[in-house]
Amino acid sequence: MKLKVLILFITVLLCSCKEVTKHNTQVFQTSDLNHANTVLLEAVMEDAFTPPVASRMYAYAHLAHYSTLQSLRQDSLAEITTKINGLEDFKVSRQNEVNPELASLFAFSNVGKKLIYSEHFFDVLIDSLKTRAELLGLSEATIKNSENYALEISEQMSNWIDKDMYSETRTYPRFTSTKKPENWRETPPDYANGLEPYWDKIRPMVIDSANVFDYKSLPEYSTDRDSDFYKMVYQVYEAVNNKTEDTEKTAWFWDCNPIMTVHKGHMVTTIHKFTPPGHWLNIVHQVASKEKSDYFTTANAYTLTSMAMFDAIIAAWHVKYKTDLVRPVTFIQENIDSEWTPVLQTPPFPEYTSGHSATSASAAEILSHIFGDNYTFTDNTQLRFGLEERKFNSFREAANQVNLSRFYGGIHYMQGVEEGARQGRNIANLILKKLQ
What we know:
2 domains, Vanadium-containing Chloroperoxidase, domain 2, mainly alpha
C-alpha cells in the first residue's frame, strides 16, 4: 500500500514538474504551414472546384493566415491587410497568451472550412493542430486563447469575403453563346456552358479593377487563307499535327484540368487534378522545403502568390468575355479539318487571353521577387498523376513553358498565351508596387 502511494506521489510530482512552453514560442514550423496548404489543395481537388473559384479559396485562406500572423509578429512580416480592397478598416484586438503560428493556422483552417464543401478536411486539420500544440508543450489556456483569437479574425474576414460578389454572381443568367463564327461556342467533348462569365464582377484583392490591362488587339476574323486570323489558327493546327513526344509531354505536364472527362461510349468518368493556381502553390511548398525557408518567408510566398493569381484570373476573365473569341478546335473543325482534335480538352470559356498563362506569369513574378530571378528548382507535382518531374532554371522559365503547353495542346493561339503572360506579369508588378 505504501509503495502504491509512493508511486502515485512520484507520478503527480513528475506531471507537475513538466515544463510548459511559453505562449509566444515559435513551436510550429514551415512544415506545418506546408501541410495546411496541402490540405487546402486536396480539399479543392476533392470537390473539383474550377480554377477561378479555387483561386478565391487559396487567396482567402492564405490571407487569413498572413493577417493573423502579422498582427502577432509585427517585426517579421509587412502589414498588407489594410492595403487589400475592402479591408482598409481591418482591426484586431489584443489578447494575452496567444501563440502566433497556432492562431494563424487556426484562422487558415476556419476560412478554408467556410469555403469548401468537404469540411472534414479542415475538421481533421484543426484537431491535429490542437493535438500537436499539446505535444509541443503549449498550455490548454494558450491553445484556447489562440483558437479564440483566430475566430475573431476569421469572423471579420468572413464578413469581408461575403461582400466580394461571389454569391450574387451565382444567381446571374447562364452565358449563352452568340453562335457567330468569330465568337466562342461550346466545345467538344462536353459542350459545356461558358464557365464563370461574370467572374470580372468579383472584387479583386489588390488591383483597382478587372480592367487594368491594355491588351493587344486581335486580328480581324476571317476564313481567308491569306488573312492574319487564318494564319494564327493554322499555326495551332500545324503544331498539333506535327506534335512530338516532347511537345505532347509538355502539354500534359501543365494541363492542370481539375475536371477532365473521359468518354467511353455512353459512360463519362472524371479525373481530378490540381488547378493551375494549385499547381503553383504546390511549387511554393516544394521550394520552401528545399530552401528550408523560415515560417515568415513561406507565409509571404504563399500569400502574395495566391493573391496575384486570384487577381490575374479576374483580369483574364474580363478580357475573355469581352473579346469572346472562338477556340481553335471550333474554327479548325469548321474551316480546315473536320476530324481534327487537340491534344488537351478545350476548357469551356473564350480563348483570349490565356488564363493559365496569366496565372503562371503572375506567380513566377512574385516567386522571382522572393527567391530570386535565376532560382533552379525541380517540380514533382505531376508524379502522383503518372507524369514526370521537370527541372527549371527559373520561375519565369516554367511560366514560359506553360505558354507553350497551351499552344502545343491545341487549345490556345500564340497571341493568346503571349498576351496572357504579359497580363500576369503586369498584374504581379502592380501588386508588388502597391503592397511594398
